[in-house]
Amino acid sequence: MKKVVVIGEILVEIMADTVGDGFLEPLALTGPFPSGAPAIFIDQVAKIGQPCAIISAVGNDDFGEINRSRLARDGVDVSAISIDASRPTGSAFVRYHRDGTRDFVYNIKHSACGSISKSDEAVHVLNSADHVHVMGSSLSSPELVRLNLETVRSVKARNGTVSFDPNTRKELFGAPNLREAMKEILSLSDVFLPSGEELTLLTQANDPDTAVAELLALGIECIVHKLGSEGVRHHNADGSQFVPAFAVKEIDPTGAGDCFGGAFTALWLQGYKTDEVLRLASAAGARAVLHRGPMEGASDLETLVRFANEHAEQWKGLRT
Prior knowledge:
The longest helix is centred in the middle third of the chain and has 16 residues, at 142-157. Helix content is 36%, strand content 22%. Helix 1 (37-48) packs across helix 7 (256-269), helix 4 (142-157) packs parallel to helix 5 and helix 8 packs across helix 9. Strand 4, helix 2 (62-73) and strand 5 (81-84) form a beta-alpha-beta unit. The mean pLDDT is 92. The chain has a single domain (4-319), classed as Ribokinase (UDP-N-acetylmuramoyl-L-alanine:D-glutamate ligase), CATH 3.40.1190.20. The protein has helices spanning 37-48, 62-73, 120-127, 142-157, 178-187, 208-217, 256-269, 274-289, 301-310, 312-319; strands spanning 4-7, 11-16, 29-35, 52-59, 81-84, 90-96, 102-107, 131-135, 161-165, 191-192, 222-226, 231-236, 239-244. It is globular. By secondary structure, it is of the alpha/beta class. The protein is built from ten helices and 13 strands.
């Protein structure tokens, strides 16, 4: 089985207990939860049973320990997570607005994962990678941009595969030369996993149909356009299909896209048929929103199959 590697931030997430307009006054909070988009993604990959690893850094603190322990428990190779004695583990405070949008207060740049180094352990993991997944949120510094680009080029040169989730955050989208780096990563990707308006983020075309044609012309094997609670639209050389989301009562949407992406990537690598990959990845996204905390809903394959089967009639009805 191919080994999946991701490079990027590991954080704790601390969430406001009430809907509101920011953190301008004292309020009740819940957390810390293990988090970071690459960490959520790779945790879900591991729970599917795919060999995988993450290259990152945490502080010598409790926040770092809860992340390392969770990832290791779920089967992620954590040997390339370095412990920085001088910087704390990264953090994200999140508050939801009444319309469902979110605001984050991050500490990434000045945290341990803001200076991920290419250690001996990282080199060993990189040399073992058959597939690399890139998160746009992890391209937050010139050093991280360079390391992700080097890894993508190296994996492709040895006939490995690449998946790319733009995963843009307005709070992070300002690193020098970021757009150029993302366009190169896109051109080397086999699987592209944009959300919403990210479909046209890196294309000349502004309308979805023309953008899809432009992306497929780059050599991308499949485009999985995530549409939140509506579902996903899958595109490849054979055509397009829409798959609805499972209808569930949402508790917390954070991490749903990362769990979907992790499940999709692992099952795609394992050679599952497209319909089944989409069905089980959709189940992973649905299971994620049923739990408070971004990594709390990551599910093993048996659980996803059972969930999808239990909701089969409802899902078939949504598809028609």
